[in-house]
Amino acid sequence: MAGSSVVYAAGGVVWRQVDDRVLVLLIHRTRHRDFSLPKGKLDPGETLPQAAVREIAEETGIRVTLGLPLGAVDYPIANGRTKEVHYWATEATDAAVAASTFSPNAEVDGLEWLPIPAALGRLSYASDIDVLQLFADMHDHGTLRTFALLTLRHGKAVQPFEWEDSDASRPLSAQGHAQASAIVPTLAAFGPRTLISSSARRCIETLEPTAAALGRPLKTTNAISQDAYESHGGSVPRIVQKRLAKRRTAVLCSHSPVLPEILHEIAIATSTPSALRLTRAGMLSPGEFTVVHLSATDPAAGILAVETHSPPS
Predict the structure, then answer these.
(1) How far is it, in rounded angstroms, from Cα 58 to Cα 154?
(2) pLDDT tens per residue across span 72-88
């Protein structure tokens, strides 16, 4: 991250539904004697999503995956610097709560689950209140439960002039393999349950480290391959419609000419206005991916949020 005067941090609004009520989790910090949302500074080489998941686990003992982004807040800290904190909504499943490893410690001495109005009154800082108020607005609009489609461009590949065989068999370069490994924690932060790759070797190699880390099978298809797209348009609409019907977070690893079309089809299929603008989010560098957040109860309600992430530098 550029800018030595800015300290980057990440966290989340951890929530769960108990009966008909949504509860959010606040932490009580020992040294500061305050109530706040779980968050913390990035470790060297971390991405914002990776740090958000790690910090929530460290401060609450609960392992989560990221839902809707809640934006960022910034405020001055010591030595003339600024802290910029990025937040996501993160649902804590019953199993994750039951498996919590939290015990009071020197940093966080207590956790408290509260209804949203009570939590708004308990938080110690205006910036946290602003974030929780945005979360409350999403709750009021029924958009808390979401899933995401992650469109990933394969890592840096061996150049065509360096490869004598078919383009589909062109592998990743050493840099591409490093990118494929580096993006694993950031992809994992969003909890993908399905991993789908173009049949091209460079796409398969990009997703293989993530499949191994998550213990999930890697599915391959010609439908989103560059060869199929350039010869007859591929089968992007069919793939998109199937993923929307499943309503499960999935990664689609494809190629630079195909990714804008995938995003365009997501926009069209979800009746999202200004669909043509979304194709810009498909113009990715090798190893980058875009996260498209959708309602789990009504995908046709339109795209709720879009974010793009790069391999850590």
Answers:
(1) 31
(2) 999 988 888 999 999 99
Separation in Å, CA 261 to CA 142, 215, 235, 236, 238: 29, 29, 10, 7, 12
First vs last C-alpha separation in the chain: 8
Instruction: List the structure tokens of 166.
Output: 């078919």
Strands 108-115 and 146-153: unpaired
**H helix runs in 70-216, sequence order:** 94-98, 116-122, 126-140, 174-182, 184-188, 201-214
Whether the full predicted model's pTM is greater than 0.85, yes or no, is yes
Structure tokens at 234: 């591929």
Going along the chain from its start, the domains and CATH numbers come out as 6-140 (3.90.79.10), 146-309 (3.40.50.1240)
More confident residue, 209 or 279: 209
Phi, psi of 265 (to 5 degrees): -65, -35
Distances (CA, A) of 76 to 4, 12, 37, 85, 187: 14, 20, 18, 12, 31
